[in-house]
């Protein structure tokens, strides 16, 4: 009896494994793979996202909240750690987030506002560019973001960003990125004259 029971359990486990494998194959064939990809979407087109920066500017606006700039880049753009310079042509999306913590970008939902208060869990400046050339500072499409949210999650040193925003032309901008970010402490460089543009040799925003 015990041997038969063990045999039955073994058969059940095998059949269960085969069922799950077949279901996954079917899901993949039907386009139901739930694995998220690092990309942004605008006007019905998808654009890849390959790496990103977090720049800590401290209490840049003297508002009591702390400015962490998030910039995500596509392939086609590269970053040279030796020269601290970006170069190339690709896609960029940028958010100027206000965190409640002086030392870290606090996980949570950051919401667009244009009040000029620069309070925690908000962003007042954001935008994106498609096929943007960092040398000439020109892109095929350049838009400000004027509404929506950016959700931030973090596990260890891996960040996860979920974008649900509105561009200035009222078209939705969505996106997702998960990965380790380049981190820069810019708190000693605070200057209201402008921040370096995406770590290129071009100054100002």
Describe this structure in words.
By secondary structure, this protein is mainly β. It has one helix and twelve strands. Strands 1, 2, 3, 4, 5, 6, 7, 8, 9, 10, 11 and 12 form a twelve-stranded mixed β-sheet that branches. The protein is globular.
Keywords summarizing the entry:
205 residues, mainly beta, 12-stranded mixed β-sheet, 1 helix, 12 strands, 49% strand, globular, disordered C terminus
Topology, pairings included?
Blueprint: H1 2-29, E1 39-42, E2 45-48, E3 51-58, E4 66-73, E5 77-80, E6 85-99, E7 108-112, E8 122-133, E9 138-155, E10 158-167, E11 172-180, E12 182-185
Parallel strand pairs: 3-12, 7-8
Antiparallel strand pairs: 1-2, 1-11, 3-4, 4-6, 5-6, 6-8, 7-9, 8-9, 9-10, 10-11
Rg on CA atoms, Å: 22 Å
In DSSP terms, counting alpha (H) and pi (I) runs of 4 or more, how many helices? 1
What percent of residues adopt helix (DSSP H or I)? Answer: 10-25%
Contiguous runs where pLDDT drops below 50 for at least 5 residues: 1-33, 201-205
DSSP strand content:
over 45%
Q: What composes the largest sheet? A: 12 strands, mixed
Distance between the termini: 77 Å
